[in-house]
Every structure is written in C-alpha cells, then in structure tokens.
Amino acid sequence: MTEARTQRDAVVPFIVDIPRNLIIGFLLGYRKLISPIYGDVCKYFPSCSAYALEAVTVHGAVKGVYLATKRVFRCNPFSHGGIDQVPDGRRIWPEGKLPKIMVMNHPPIPADEDEDAANAARGA
Amino acid sequence: MGFFDTILWPFQFVVTWILRICHEILTAIGLNETSGWNWTLSIVLLVLLIRAALIPVFVKQIKAQRAMQALQPDLRKLQAKYKGKKDQLSQQAMLAEQRELFKRHKTNPLSSCLPLLIQMPFFFALFHSLNNARGASENEEGIGQLTVTQTHHFADSSIFGAGLSDTFLGTFNSGSPQISVILISVVMILAMVASQFITQKQIMTKNMTKEALEGPFMQQQKMMLYILPLVFGIGGINFPIGVLIYWTATNLWTLGQQYWIIRNNPTPGSQAERELNERRAAKGLPPIHEKKKKAEEETPEEPELPKVQRSQPQRKNRRKK
C-alpha cells in the first residue's frame, strides 16, 4: 500500500483503491437507503456505519473492515455506548479535501453555557 | 460448499435441528407427519424459541428505558443548548454529547443493531433450507439435520394447497400460476405490513414525547412507516411461504412485545404514560415516577436534589458488579 502511494502513478493507486472504494460505495448506499428505515439505534457516536465509513476511508479495506467488525460487536445490548472514535491513520489529506465523513465524525463540541452545572453533573 | 454456505452452515444446523425436534414432538402428540400444518407450527415454535432467547436483551432495554427518567433534566439541558442550531455539524455534536451523557449515567436506551443482526443468519438459514428442500428431496438427500424422509415431507408439505417452499414470483413466472400460493403470499404480506404498521403507529401515537413528535426523528419514523410495507412487499413475493410464516410470526411477537412495553413502561411525558397514570389512579395508586417529577419541578435550578434520588439505581449496579 505504501509502495503504491510513493509511486505517484495514476493507475496503481486506482487499482489498489478498488476494494476500499467498493466498500465505501456500499456503506454510502446503506447510510442513504437502509439506515433511515432502521432508525437511530446505535449506542455510540459515531454510529457503527459512520465508524465503518471512516475506518475504511482512513485505514483501507482490510484494516477498516476489521476495525468496523470489532465495533459492531462492541455495540451490543449490554454496553453503555459513548463516544468512540476511529484510531488515527497515516493517511493525510490536502487542505480542503478532507472527506465529509471525517468532518461529520469530529464535530467541534461547543462549551456549556454554565460550566459549573456541567461539572457538578459530571462529578455526581 | 460455497462461501455463503460455509458461513450459513452452523445456523442451518441449528435451525433444521430445532425444526426436526419440534416436528417430532408435534408428530408424537398426534399431528400428521406429512401435514403442512405440522411444519408450519414447527416454524412458529422456532420463532418462539429465538425470540424467547432474546428476552434478556429486551429486559435489559426496558431497564435502561426506566432509568431514562433520571436523565430527563440533563437531556432537557442538552436540548436547550442546541436549540435553534439546525446545521449538520451542531446536530452531530449534539448526538455525540447525548451518547456521552448515556455513558456517564451508565444507561443507554438505544437498542444497538445486534438483536437484529443475530436474527438475520437464522432467517437466511431457513430461507436457504426451504429453497433447497425440493432439490434435496429429488436427489434423495437430507437438509441439515433433517432425515431424507423428513426432507421429502418438508419439501412436499403445503397449507391450503400452497407449498411451504413455493414463492409468489416462482409460481407467477412458471406459466401455470397456482392461485393458492398467490393468495396465501398476499395474505401473509398483508399480515406482515399490518403488524409492522400497527407496531410503528403505536410508538408514534402513544409512546413519544411532544418534543420527540416535533423533532427530526419523527420524519424518519414517518418514512419508515411508509417504506417498510414496500420492503415487505418486495421481499414477500420473493420468499417461500415457509419464510413468510416465520416473518409474520416474528412480527406478531414484536407487536405484542411493543404493546406490553407501551402499556407498562411508557416513555416519560408520552400519551401512554398519561393513560397508565389514569389506570393507576382508578386503582387508587399514585402516578408512576411521581416523586421524581415533583422534585424536579420544585427545584429546577438546583441539580443536587434529583441526584440524591438518582443514586438508587447506581447502587444497584454496584451490587451487581
């Protein structure tokens, strides 16, 4: 994979990216068509499909699918959920070309208006 | 064996084994060995077993929903924080904060998709078994754990003249369509759509708070209400009658389960909760969650008071660990 990236050949990266792009296409279709029907049930943020999409985008088909599978099993009726981000990858995107899923999965969280109340709630 | 068969094999083993045991028990208590009703009941028993095995998951979810009461003040605060912020990034941030809140309180009312994912391979295994029943029967082979004789019976079984392994599309395209298959498929599809529709409608009209009824989630719910019948329709004409029996039975179970939740564990602030409280008042019982609500109303600024009462479910958790 790294070899393919260093040779900035137009064809090799394209072929290497085929499995990744197939999975990305499938996930985008799922999120557009099936996910809305099934509703909002995921215990985590980002949801399992968003996690999978980011994982495959950042880590490629093999590691991405592995990470996503682990996540789906983590998201079971006996877990408490929470925020669970994809581990950082080595892939770097040029300025302004960050994939949309990366933006959506890492929203800036505005500070609470009354920080004291929030801290009190956290301390309880 | 192909890739798909290999993955399905253990599930097919379980499904056919349960079917076989059910069929043998039903035959022992006097049902005709070759009757389609015997196999139909066996499939219904399979559904009951799978859904009963998932009851602990369901109980867990109800407990989480009950604990939601304690989260209400924090959830309202969150809603206030993001009021009017409708852009996608703010919505995402709100979702993230909400999930974090659930984690902090160690209670999560969301069901996760695993209950559905677990049922899928069993469903496909039954589908696969019914689809291959004819072929295996003609080749004098057994399917999964079914003996050759049982496979013959399974492949040839029918109710009202419609074979359990026949499909609507199959008979429609065969040149000489069987009216019985078409009729039973259509009745089953209608039953599935109706049960799904009622389940969904029940949630929407009775078990949602005013805020939820006006939120973006409602749009999704509405979409689901009208798209799912389409999914059932398209799926239904492709699936063998036996699979439709399975699907209808599992839908009816969901309907009953949902009815029970809405009646006994309604969402705080919903129509169903008001109805429950009316029933409780008629019996001379205090409204459900009354104490907690009063505490909230009296001291909306001070988060300390509800927290004192909140410690109870936490203690329970600790004891378990």
From TrEMBL, chain A:
Which InterPro entries does this UniProt record tie to the protein?
Membr_insert_effic_factor_YidD
Query: What protein is this chain from?
Result: Putative membrane protein insertion efficiency factor
Q: Which PANTHER family match?
A: MEMBRANE PROTEIN INSERTION EFFICIENCY FACTOR-RELATED (PTHR33383)
Report the protein's function: Could be involved in insertion of integral membrane proteins into the membrane.
Localized where? Cell membrane
Family, as annotated: Belongs to the UPF0161 family.
What NCBIfam families does the annotation carry?
membrane protein insertion efficiency factor YidD (TIGR00278)
Sorted alphabetically, the keyword list is: Cell membrane, Membrane
Source superkingdom:
Bacteria
Q: Which Pfam families match?
A: YidD
State whether keyword Membrane applies.
Answer: yes
User: Which SMART domains does this entry report, sorted A to Z?
Assistant: Haemolytic
Q: Quick check: keyword Cell membrane in the entry?
A: yes
Bilayer topology term: Peripheral membrane protein
From TrEMBL, chain B:
Q: Where is the composition biased (Basic and acidic residues)?
A: 272-281
* Record localization: Cell membrane; Membrane
TM regions (residue ranges) = 37-59, 179-198, 225-247
Q: Does the keyword Metal-binding apply?
A: no
Domain Membrane insertase YidC/Oxa/ALB C-terminal intervals: 39-262
NCBIfam families listed in its UniProt record: PRK01315.1 (NF002350), yidC_oxa1_cterm (TIGR03592)
Q: How does it assemble?
A: Interacts with the Sec translocase complex via SecD. Specifically interacts with transmembrane segments of nascent integral membrane proteins during membrane integration.
Q: What is this protein called?
A: Membrane protein insertase YidC
Native organism? Zhihengliuella salsuginis
- Taxonomic path: Bacteria, Bacillati, Actinomycetota, Actinomycetes, Micrococcales
